[in-house]
């Protein structure tokens, strides 16, 4: 890029850091993000280890969400039973 332009690496760094303006000159950045339609998505180049890490992360998060939902269900059910017993007793 030019003298004051940002290259792809710099733009990615600015996006990931959440910076809104230049630290030196205080120029405010204008960033636009668009999500491509699903049919235009491209496959990421990943090795076996990276794929395994992503799959383990997805599996772990699914298990965690399932545990939270199940725990909520059990707590709500127990609370209902307690409320019901107090009304009858």
Net shape: elongated
Q: Could you tell me the mean pLDDT?
A: 83
H/E element sequence: HH
Kindly estimate the percentage of residues that lie in beta strands according to DSSP.
under 5%
- Content-based structural category: mainly alpha
Low-confidence regions: none
- The percentage helix is 55-70%
Number of strands: 0
Span from first to last CA?
A: 77 Å
Main β-sheet description? none
Total helix count? 2
Number of domains: 2
Radius of gyration, in angstroms, nearest whole number: 25 Å
Describe, in short, the structure shown.
The protein is mainly α and 89 residues long. Helices cover 57% and strands 0% of the residues.
Salient structural properties:
mainly alpha, 89 residues, single chain, elongated, 2 domains
Describe it.
With 89 residues, this protein is mainly alpha-helical. It has 2 domains: 1-33, no CATH class; 38-89. 57% of the residues lie in helices and 0% in strands. The protein is built from 2 helices and no strands. It is elongated, with a radius of gyration of 25 Å.
Secondary structure layout plus pairing:
Layout: H1 8-17, H2 48-88
Transmembrane segments: 54-76
Main location: membrane
Membrane topology: Multi-pass membrane protein
